[in-house]
Design goal:
With 98 residues, the protein is mainly alpha-helical. Helices cover 70% and strands 0% of the residues. The protein is rod-shaped and about 135 Å long. It has one domain.
Length: 98
């Protein structure tokens, strides 16, 4: 009996390239996906931190605005004027119009 020669078909370079790219994509896709999700998560955490800081600064600004209004009130101005020996005299007030 004669033996039959078994010839293997050589895979072309193009097919090898396709297989290599498929393996690389299969491995890299989960890594890229997890990395991007971690990055987005960190950004969300930073955004929430900044929002809380903004809220805190807004409360501080509101408190300071109230303090300014309190200090600029007519009663407070009259008290400070009395402390320095000044008095309110309506006759000395002159209205200047254009």
């Amino acid at each position: 009996m004669a033996r039959k020669k078994v010839t293997k078909k050589k895979t072309s370079k193009f097919v090898k390239l396709i297989y290599t790219l498929a393996i690389i994509l299969t491995i890299s896709f989960p890594i890229v996906s997890i990395t991007s999700k971690a990055f987005v998560s960190k950004l969300n955490f930073d955004v929430e931190k900044l929002k809380s800081e903004v809220t805190s600064k807004e409360k501080t600004n509101q408190s300071l605005t109230m303090k300014i209004n309190e200090l600029a009130s007519l009663e407070n101005i009259q008290e400070v004027a009395k402390e320095y020996g000044l008095e309110y005299n309506n006759d000395n007030i002159k209205i200047v119009m254009k």
